[in-house]
Amino acid sequence: MLQSADLDAIRAIIARAKRWDMFFALLGILSLMVGVLTFTALFVDMAIQGVPRLDFEFFTSFPSRRAANAGILSAWVGTVLVMLVTALAAVPLGVAAGVYLEEYAPKNWITDIIEINISNLAGIPSIVYGLLALGLFVYYFGFGQSILSAGLTLALLILPVIIVATREAIRAIPQSIHEGSYACGATTWQTVSDHILPYSSAGILTGVIIGMARAIGETAPIITIGALTFIAFLPPAPFAGDPPAGLFEWIFAPFTVMPIQMFNWTSRPEAAFTVNAAAAGFVLVFMTLAMNGLAIYVRYRLRKNIKW
Amino acid sequence: MQIPSGLEAGVEGDLLKAEVRDLDFYYGGFHALKHVTMPVHDRKVTALIGPSGCGKSTLLRCFNRMHDLYPGNRYAGGGIVLHPDNTNLLAQEVDPIEVRMRISMVFQKPNPFPKSIYENVAYSLRVRGMRNKNELDDRVEAALKGAALWNEVSNRLNELGANLSGGQQQRLCIARALASDPEIILFDEPTSALDPIATASIEELVTELKENVTILIVTHNMQQAARISDFTAYMYLGEMVEFGITDQIFIKPTKKATEDYITGRFG
Ligand SMILES: Nc1ncnc2c1ncn2[C@@H]1O[C@H](COP(=O)(O)OP(=O)(O)O)[C@@H](O)[C@H]1O
Ligand SMILES: [Mg+2]
Question: Looking at chain B, which residue has its C-alpha nearest residue A302?
Fold first, then answer.
C-alpha cells in the first residue's frame, strides 16, 4: 500500500530531476541563439545597408568607376554560368563515384584507401584546389582563365561532398529493399537504376545543394585561376554576335563572380562602394537561400512517394 | 552419409524438386551449415524449424544465392541440385541471377519497393525484359489473384505498395515472387511481423500455392509448421537433425533432440 508521504517524496525526486531537463533545454537554446542571432544580425545589417541600393539597374549594369552607376551584371551572370559548369561536371562524377563505391567496389584495402582519401579531400583548403587548377586546367589543358576552368575547379572542390552525400543516401535505403531487388533476379545495374538512384535522389540532391552553396561563395580558388575583378562585357551568347558565336563559346570567356565583385568593392575607400558591396552580398545570400529553398521543395516532392 | 528419413518414408511417386547434398557454408570463419543434406519435394511445402540461430535462414538463402551479395561468405562443399535438369545451384559457373530467376523469395518483413502496387509486381517481369503492356497487365493481374490480393487492390493499382496493411504488403511481396512463375518460392518467417488474422491468410495462401510451385518455408512457430507443411526439417547448430513427413516428425520423431524441441522441453 502506497502511503501519501511516499508519494510526496517521489514527486520531490521527479521535480529535482526535472530541473536538469530545464537547465539543459536553456543551455541548448542559448547555444542555438549564438549561431542564429549572429547570422541574423549580419544579414539584417547587410540588408539595411544594401537593400535600398537594389534597383533594376543594379542588376543590368556593368561595374563602373562611379559607385552610383556600378552594377553586378557581369558578376551574377558569371556566377550562374560557373555554377552551371560546376553542377554539370560534379554531379555525374560524384554520383557515379558514390554509386561505384557502395554497389560495385570490392571491399578491400584499395577501397579503404580511396575512402579515407575522399574524406581527406573534403578538408583540403580551397586555395590548394585553386593552385592545382591553375596548373592543370588553365595551363596544361589550355582552358585559360575561363568559366570552364572556374567551373571545373569548383567541381573538384565539391566532389567529395557529393560523393559522401551519395553514399550516405544509398546507405539509408534499407537492406531489405536492396535484397528484394536482387531476389527478383535484377543485376547490379538494374538494382542501381531502378531502385538505388530513384530512392536516394532526395539525399543526393541535398548533398549537391550543400556543395553548390559552398561553391557559390568561394573566392580564393577563383582568384587563383585568374578571374577578372573588373569586367565590362558578358560571355558570348550562343549564336549571337557577328561572326556568330558557337554554342559553347561562352565557356572559354573571361568572367567574374559575385564574391569577387563584393571583395573588389569593399576594398575601395568610398563609402558608396561599401553600400554596393552590401547590396551584392544581399543578392548572393539570397541566391544561396533560394537554392536551399528549392532543395527543400524538391526533396519534399521526391520523399512524398518514398516510404519503407 | 546417412540419408535423412522421409526419402524412404512412404512418399513413392513423389518427385524431388531439389536436393541439398552434404552442404557446408561459412560466414567468414564461422561454420554456419555443417554437412546439411535434405530433399525438397516437388509441389510440396517443406518447413525448416529449429531454435533461433540454428541456420534456417542461412540454408534458405543458399537456395537463391543471396549469400553472394556479401563478401566473406563461402559455400565450402557439397551443393544444391535442382531437378529436373540436375543443375548444382551453388556451382561457381552458375550465374546467381539465373538461380534467382528460377527461385524467388519472400522475406521476413514485408519489403515492397516504394513504387506502385502494379510496379511492385511487374518488377519481376521487367527484369526479365517483358515490355508489352498487355502482357504485363495480364501477368500482374494473375499474380495478384494468385496471392489473393486482387480483389482488395484491383481499383488502386497505382497507389504506393507501402500504403497497404502489413498483411496486404506481404501478399504483395508474394505476388511479386509469384509473377515470374518460379519453380521454388522461399519464405523466411513470412508471418513473424504480422497479426494473427494476416498470418492465417498467408498460411492459407501458402497451402494453395503448392498446387503449382514448390515451397520452402522457415518458421519459428511449430504450430505453423504442423499446420501448413508436408515435410519438416529440424535443424540445430547448423546441422540437419531430422527430416521427415510433418505428421511423423510431430507425432513420432525418431530423434530425442527433435522430440525435446517439439514438446517444448528445449528451445
Ligand atoms: N552475416 C553473418 N555473418 C556472420 N554470422 C552470421 C551472419 N548471419 C548469421 N550468422 C550466424 O549464423 C548462424 C545462423 O544464423 P541464421 O541462419 O540467421 O539463423 P536462424 O535459424 O535463426 O535463421 C547464427 O549463429 C548467426 O549468428
Ligand atoms: Mg532467420
Answer: B114
